[in-house]
Amino acid sequence: MGLTSPAFASLPGDLPEGRLVAPEGEPVLWVSEQKPEDAVRIWRRLYADRARTGLYPLLLESLRGDDERPWLAGELKPRPTSEIDGIDVEKQLREWWSLPRPGWSGLAPPSLPHANPDDTVAEIVLDTDFYGAVRIGLVPAARGADALTAMGWTGACNNAETPPISAVLRSWEDRFGAHLVAVGFDTITLAIAAPPTTAEQAEALAIEHEAFVWDEQHDMSDEEYAEHLQEARTWEFWWD
Hints:
By secondary structure, the chain is an alpha+beta fold. Helix content is 36%, strand content 15%.
């Protein structure tokens, strides 16, 4: 498996062939060489075991037309997760929202905590057929939000640095049980254990989504998108 690192000392022995990726000398990601047909099943097992291993699993999609990028090519710029800690999420989203428009409405209130969010997330991943051929990735991180910064994903670099992106994902995980599942060259997908339950909550969250990516990513009206968020079990975002 190439390089060794204390952070990957608990790497399971029954993984498919893979390698450690070290863009700046220290490994920050283990990634499978191939795209296993049972990637979702492997992901679920690794997700259930993440507290023991200290490794957060991701389904990794390559750049269309260039299968090496960004994972096998090591096209990553890792940052300390401590850079996430001091970020004020409400202030950050308000700043992003206010760049092209006025009228920020504040953070959406949280949903009620879900009794078994991990089970719910695993069921969503199993039941949702939106992954093509994907690699398995493992990142030394306690949660998916932190994994983006720890491994150095740069998919939103034309709009924002990764630590603020991670800070928002932390907040969504806390408020809506939104767990990072899949990451592409410039895309992320979250599984949602506790979606908004009221129209007011969903409307405020819809504004957060638009601020997060600085742009509309759907052809629905604001009202339709807010209604959609009350039913959606996955959130998908992309950046140019």
